[in-house]
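W.,

You were right to be curious about this one. When I first looked at the sequence I had no strong expectations either way, so I just let the prediction run and decided to look at it fresh. Below is the sequence, 531 residues in total, followed by the output.
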Amino acid sequence: MSYQEQINRTGQIIQSHDGRWDGINAESVARMQVQNRFRTGLDIARYTAKIMRGDMAAYDADPANYTQSLGCWHGFIGQQKLISIKKHFGSTKGRYLYLSGWMVAALRSEFGPLPDQSMHEKTSVPALIEELYTFLKQADARELGMLFRDLDKARETGDRLEEQRLLHAIDNYETHVVPIIADIDAGFGNAEATYLLAKKMIEAGACALQIENQVSDEKQCGHQDGKVTVPHEDFLAKIRACRYAFMELGIDDGIIVARTDSLGAGLTKQIAYVREAGDIGDQYNSFLDCDEVSAADLGHGDVLISRDGKLMRPKRLPSNLYQFRPGTGEDRCVLDCITSLQNGADLLWIETEKPHIEQIAGMVDRIREAVPNAKLVYNNSPSFNWTLNFRQQVYDRWIEEGKDVSAYDRAKLMSVDYDGTELAQEADERIRTFQRDASKRAGIFHHLITLPTYHTAALSTDNLAKEYFGEAGMLGYVLGVQRQEIRQGIACVKHQNMAGSDIGDDHKEYFAGEAALKAGGKDNTMNQFAA
């Protein structure tokens, strides 16, 4: 429905109340409706799921159509990210939000900072989803409010051409609301607990849930040691629980991202149940590190399995965990991915220990033998030392090509002494094109950085504190922050406007007319930042 159609419709409703609603202005109502396009989180999930499905189809047609996101730990951070994207690129197409369980644990728990081990309150995850979308909807309301004010000015001055341009801009307005890939960890419990939390996350607006195959009560960050996986049937039950949640709530095209930590996980808590030789439980158990034993070798309390007609004793640790054979991580990872896609998952997430395109591609090639359109969400993780990794990759390739590397010490390539070298420049170029190259070669549909805004908050705060509390004093803030905001056109330099004061003034005028006491008059110091 166009803006004018909404005005006309609202006017008819007002007129139908025999003058009792004549104090309501139809255009003001239409403006509030346009500014509040998404009434519920389910409206958001429905809208964004369609966007993401369309993007997935576009990627299948051409891997140059990959998508990206940055992890955001607060609604304001997500809002500023999308405002920036619209300002610099004119569209949010292909750009999402990522919600990191790591950052929820580290920054949003009532217990205080926690490691990424599913110890934080599960309700903090849907709460952050809701907060992110609240801030994105407010960004819409703010930007549309400015268009409405410009529209009023155009009408006041009789500028019909500008009026028509603004009406077109309002009718074709692109929202800041984009898909969010939300981390549900290992489900925070059993399959029923996973289902209940998934519902809350979807109701808050999430169209894509990322779930991992670790044991819920032993969950570790994907870049920490000590990860413990579960048998496939256990993980598939949680994937189905997520699908049930989506379908119950009417989000039939919701997206499930199945993450495997098997590449770095050498332990399991359970021996899988086997119904028949070669089934999925048997395949899982085939990776267990076992010793062949006879009846004479049995110890008190030993656990045994039968494998190929032989009696085998899985290696069990004092923690009551069982270990996998060394070197089986990639095979287990491939099996996890194929099984997940064949049982309802839409996208894969393979947590690796380094950003190496051929390592990722080698696994994806094997997965695609079974599922040709398999595609990944990939963590461009801050846990990787990108500089050192890529300089070492270039160093190793140069050795293979017979190039002279005598000027370089491979172990010390992180040193600033190498920053201007040919090797460093080639490494930086590989980092710059990593997402494009990996999407083309390794099936990566979506690139994200899990914790970037955690690091940028720390870095910018350190820089400000160093200057403000040092010799620079107030100049530390003015030079490093405010002057940059003004010159770079950062919207929140007008922080009152960003926090909603102009929206509030508009509403006061709707409600009280000329009697409205507004905050945005001539004495508002925000006017010092007028364009």
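Here's what jumped out at me. The mean pLDDT is 93. And, maybe more interesting for your project: The radius of gyration is 28 Å.

Coffee later to discuss?

I.
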